[in-house]
Amino acid sequence: MKYYLEPLGCAKNQVDAETMIANLNDAGALFVENPDDADLLIVNSCGFIEEAKREAINVTLNFRKIYPAKKIILAGCLARRYFKELEQELSEVDAVAGSDSLDDIAPLAFGLTGEAPPRAASSPARVKLLSAPGSAYVKIAEGCDNRCSFCAIPLIRGGLRSRSIAGIVSECRALLKNGLLEICLIAQDTASYGKDTDGVCRLPDLLKALSSLEGDFWVRLLYLHPDHFPLDILETIAADRRFLPYFDIPFQHASPRLLRAMNRRGRADTYISLIERIRNFLPDSVIRSTFMTGFPGESDADFKLLLDFQHAARLDWLGVFVFSREEGVPAYNFKGRPSKKNARERKRILETRQIRITEERMGRFTGRLMTALVEEQVDGEAGPYIGRLFCHAPEVDGSLVIESAAALLPGTFVKGLVTGQAGFDLKLRVQ
Ligand code: SF4
């Protein structure tokens, strides 16, 4: 049975897509890169916010229009969140995979295509990865207990469930053995890792365990909640240069009143001192964050506080999202929501101001000898290469243009001199 999978949503959903591919391949199915060649199409949907939900439905309806005869499965977060409604109403799909268990995809797929039931899934290792060459996401926990008032993820993914340190280390060892060079540790909130199993954050212990692995590789941490940032990890990161001084810390806002309404405990001044502590301990640190505009009750004064925070924090990278009113979460019923127009305008202002800040922050790498991960060659044989330095997380940050006299292999490390920048993209010449 040949199948195609359309991966939508976040990095955590991508790991689920890769796990479904591993299960289907292990059961004897064949993944094809082009939906034309498939017997079955799987849409691994995102169901987090309005925009993402609309995208998942559009992709699915489009598949039905283009491929009237093929079997279609809607999987992922949208399928989990609205399983009953979709089963009843979305006649364009042949099945809705609403269960948490990614092992169920193979029997469901084989059942739909009338093929002999597959051999039992053996939780095979992910082999086909959907990340750029050399990089992989490793999910260290599922679900979330933080219950931010605007967030539907706990409704979809449930409460926090951390994996064992041994399980994560053995998965990372296998990925590194397969030639991977960058491991991005992810969860809904990596700063809560282990709190469900041991009552305390075990991220420092996990990093110490990973530092026992041999070889030259990168470990990158994403999605660290600012209210309980585990400062103990800074020492481990300082002691092992394979742990990147890169921190993705979604602050969301700076107005104490709004942060309370978001069910967050931080304040602008505590967030600034966190940033300063990280930068004092690891001067090379790169900090990415996320802000939200348009949260119910956000006034001009609140927005001014966020602008002041942006100015003071001088973050390296910033993503800005407009509040999405999601049923089933507390903020759905909160009053005083600014107009979409206003929320979008505030987003535009923050993004415009951030360009200059990011350019200046990235400028500090010019003139330095650095290691880059090569991702792809532009324009086939002749062009330069595109890659990333430690200061670039996959897919979300700017990129690096790599000039090299010799041919380079995607998925490998190269050393070179950062010669300059174009906007916030950096340039490197291989030495
Ligand atoms: S920490 Fe993130 S995933 Fe968890 S509830 Fe808050 S926004 Fe959602």
Shape: globular
Rounded to the nearest angstrom, the distance between the terminal CA atoms is 47 Å
| The CATH topology of the largest domain | pyruvate-formate lyase- activating enzyme
Text of the CATH class of the largest domain: Alpha Beta
Question: Which small molecules are bound?
Answer: iron/sulfur cluster
Structural class assignment: alpha/beta
- With strands numbered from the N-terminus, the spatial order across the biggest sheet is 6-9-10-11-12-13
- Beta content comes to 15-25%
Helix content: 25-40%
Radius of gyration from CA coordinates? 22 Å
Description:
With 431 residues, this protein is of the alpha/beta class. Helices cover 34% and strands 22% of the residues. The strands form four sheets. A six-stranded parallel sheet has the order 6-9-10-11-12-13. It has a five-stranded parallel sheet with strand order 2-1-3-4-5, sandwiched between helices. It has a five-stranded mixed β-barrel with strand order 14-15-16-18-17. It is globular and about 60 Å long. The protein has helices spanning 11-26, 50-66, 77-81, 83-89, 105-112, 153-157, 165-177, 195-198, 203-210, 233-239, 256-261, 268-281, 300-313, 340-363; strands spanning 2-7, 30-31, 40-45, 71-76, 95-96, 135-139, 141-142, 161-162, 182-186, 218-221, 243-248, 286-293, 317-322, 369-377, 385-388, 400-403, 413-422, 425-430. The chain has three domains: 2-113, Rossmann fold (3-Layer(aba) Sandwich), CATH 3.40.50.12160; 135-363, Alpha-Beta Horseshoe (pyruvate-formate lyase- activating enzyme), CATH 3.80.30.20; 369-430, Beta Barrel (OB fold (Dihydrolipoamide Acetyltransferase, E2P)). It contains 14 helices and 18 strands. Helix 12 runs parallel beside helix 13. The mean pLDDT is 95. Bound molecules: iron/sulfur cluster. The site of iron/sulfur cluster has 10 residues, from helix 6.
